[in-house]
Write a structure and sequence with these properties.
Helices cover about 55% and strands about 10% of the residues. The chain is mostly helical. The strands form 2 sheets. The chain has a 3-stranded mixed beta sheet, with helices on one face. It has a two-stranded antiparallel sheet with strand order 1-2.
Length: about 300
């Protein structure tokens, strides 16, 4: 195939040059003591590009000045769509009094997916389910819905901020004055911190129901299992590793090493090596935590 055979618009990359530049970037970051975090920006930028391309193709006038004008106009349209989506979601979930920035973050979920499931729809489902369970148990329905609607708000920030979506969700909820129990529910919905209330457990249950219902997420079971196997395989390839367990749906890998073969300093460097190999060899959503465990036992027998 020749470049002229490609359907436009398209993006052509020189793979050799790209890989060379990436290697140089990684080497420079390593000298600076900085760890790169590969990611793909899949929030509202894609929608801006889609709208802009549609307008340019329909108009027929494609030149630098016109492109800038159309992109700016499309960005305003997407911003308005985000605001409307956030306000509508809060209204439908029965959540009132959200900070203006929290409303925008909720609206940004419209352009974010997880395994093919739209995060905004998932959050609204979770809020409805959590509200039903809270009502059956005689708990605060309004607060439970609010916590459920916001439980994945950190996912719209993972592409431009360091940290997991849980950590980012807790940070932004704290920043904009959410109730401590709501912040706790956000932090505990993947068991990152202990549950502090019945509401927190309900949010976690509603999240699991929405995410696991048939047809909600399109990742094939075989793909999911293969990713877990590859994570465990990478960790198990190192000398001194006894057992490896990929847990929390592949968001964490625990590596148990033989204390006779691996000392504490080596364990620290091994954790970094495993994490870097996972970054370079696998594709996965979010982040994967690598936990090294070294246990030394002294046993004697009294006769």
């Amino acid at each position: 195939m020749q470049p002229g055979d490609l359907t436009t618009p398209c993006l052509l990359l020189d793979r050799a040059k790209l890989e060379r530049n990436l290697s140089r970037m990684r080497a420079r970051l390593k000298r600076l003591g900085v760890t790169p975090r590969p990611h793909l920006k899949t929030a509202n930028g894609v929608e801006v590009a889609r709208l802009a391309l549609e307008k340019l193709v329909a108009d027929g006038r494609i030149h630098p000045g016109r492109i800038e004008e159309v992109v700016a106009k499309s960005q305003k349209e997407v911003d308005a769509s985000i605001q409307e989506a956030g306000e509508t979601a809060a209204y439908e979930a029965g959540v009132h009094g959200l900070h203006a920035e929290m409303v925008r973050l909720v609206g940004r979920m419209k352009y974010r997916t997880s395994y093919g499931q739209n995060i905004l729809q998932h959050s609204k489902e979770t809020a409805w389910l959590a509200g039903i369970m809270a009502a059956e148990l005689g708990l605060d329905v309004v607060m439970t819905r609010r916590a459920a609607l916001l439980h994945d708000v950190g996912k719209v920030m993972t592409h431009d901020h360091e940290g997991t979506h849980v950590q980012l969700g807790v940070e932004v909820a704290t920043k904009y004055g959410e109730h401590p129990l709501i912040i706790s529910a956000i932090g505990a919905h993947h068991d990152d911190i202990p549950h502090e209330s019945e509401m927190s457990v309900i949010v976690q249950a509603a999240d699991a129901i929405s995410g696991s219902r048939p047809g909600a997420r399109r990742e094939a079971f075989e793909t999911y299992v293969k990713r877990l196997e590859n994570i465990e395989k990478i960790a198990a390839s190192y000398k001194g590793v006894d057992r490896v367990f990929a847990i929390q749906a592949g968001r964490e890998v625990r590596v148990i090493v033989n204390p006779e073969d691996v000392d504490d300093p080596r364990m620290i460097t091994m954790a970094d090596e495993v994490a870097r190999r996972i970054e370079s060899e696998l594709q996965y959503p979010g982040q994967i935590r690598v936990v090294m465990i070294r246990e030394t036992r002294a046993v004697d027998i009294a006769r």
